[in-house]
Amino acid sequence: MHSSQSDRQHAGESILYLWVETVRQFLVEKSRSSETVDASEKVNMTAEEEEEEEEDEDTPDFRTLGLNSEHSHLLMDGVNDEEAPPIKHGDTITDRRSTFQPHLAAVVTPRQVKLFLGKLNENKKIASATHNVYAYRIYREDQNSFLQDCEDDGETAAGGRLLHLLQILDARNVAVVVSRWYGGVLLGPDRFKHINNCARTILVEEGYAASPEDANRAGAKAKRSKGRKTK
Questions:
Q1: Whole-angstrom distance between the N-terminal and C-terminal Cα of the chain?
Q2: Compositional bias (Basic residues) at which positions (predicted)?
Q3: pLDDT tens, 73-89?
């Protein structure tokens, strides 16, 4: 009798021990599984995501130069060891205390556009401009097509006009930024004239237009095609 009761007690203790061990093993396995999932998520991270994490520190503030988030993803492509292209700065135009100045760089990849904008952003005077209107046009020979984009940076319609100028001139593999420092006096449609004149002058000087006459004809054509939309 006593032996039977003792056996039942031992059996109960064994079952309790097994149950505790089972729970402990389950918790250990769950912990390991969580670590594995975290590791696999890191392994499965795409190269693009890793690149974005690495570039967070050195990515220029595109808002300062008018490159909005919709366009900026294009500029994350390319080879990371590309260098910023040499930048040319054009002469300024001043009208009623507003000053305009063009900046130009030869580019063949979207990343070079990014590097160009980033280099400009290092110049505090340029970065602090009221507007930095920009456009670029890259010819992709393998596809016989163009990669192009523009940005108004608050100067409504100016980016589109600047890109239109590049198209009329058939300017290839070039990016242009026109900075405007607002002087407190509204210029009306003259602001577009100054932006395009700045850009056209530096494009001619750097060989992106066949001649000043071609550039002037391009300017007249752009003025006619955009005249109705001027405000």
A1: 107
A2: 220-231
A3: 444 444 455 788 999 99
Q: Which residues pair with 147 in a beta bridge?
A: 138
Q: Which residue has the higher pLDDT, 212 or 69?
A: 212
Residue whose structure tokens are 């990515």: 59
Query: For the chain, what are the domain ranges?
Result: 64-229
Residue positions counted in the chain? 231
Yes or no: domain 64-229 corresponds to CATH 3.40.50.1000: no
CA distances from 57 to 51, 76, 90, 185 (A): 11, 14, 30, 38
Residue 139 phi/psi, 5-degree rounding, is: -90, 125
Which of these, 113, 92, 49, 109, lies nearest to 178 by C-alpha position? 92
Q: How far apart are CA 53 and CA 60, in angstroms?
A: 14
Give the closest residue to 216 by CA, choosing from 154, 170, 169: 169
